């Protein structure tokens, strides 16, 4: 029986193997995947640099903004909103509390629950940080029609839903 692979040159064997395997960069949606990942990474880096003068990092800002919007949110609700585990929360919250930016207090109805709020200092710092963030949004999206921005948002929300569904199925 004739075995074509047996008689191929080394170079041809590699070509045959490449045809049999599907590489990520050969996928028609790979460019989108990479663009999303790179944009996310660059946004994090830019945000980190832009917030440095306030001595906060993007994960801190995520917490502060959520407390600004949802005063009295529980630690568990906050962790769920930010898609982080308890260990991340237990690292970040004491840092913010030590700086006098947030306060934790017990829930009147359920003693096991801790409620989070911004202090006046935390509120002021959060407002400054939100100005920085809004400026970055404006700068990075300038020239993009609102309709295009909404299409990107819908695409990302669809991606998030798929990834969360898969994550929940694994849990």
Automatic annotation (TrEMBL):
InterPro entries: HTH_MarR-typ (IPR000835), Tscrpt_reg_MarR-type_CS (IPR023187), WH-like_DNA-bd_sf (IPR036388), WH_DNA-bd_sf (IPR036390)
UniProtKB keywords: DNA-binding, Transcription, Transcription regulation
Transmembrane segments: none
PROSITE patterns: HTH_MARR_1, HTH_MARR_2
SUPFAM superfamilies: Winged helix' DNA-binding domain
GO MF annotation list: DNA binding; DNA-binding transcription factor activity
Gene3D superfamilies, A to Z: Winged helix-like DNA-binding domain superfamily/Winged helix DNA-binding domain
Domain HTH marR-type: 26-168
Name of the featured protein: MarR family transcriptional regulator
Species this chain originates from: Ensifer canadensis
Lineage, highest ranks first: Bacteria, Pseudomonadati, Pseudomonadota, Alphaproteobacteria, Hyphomicrobiales
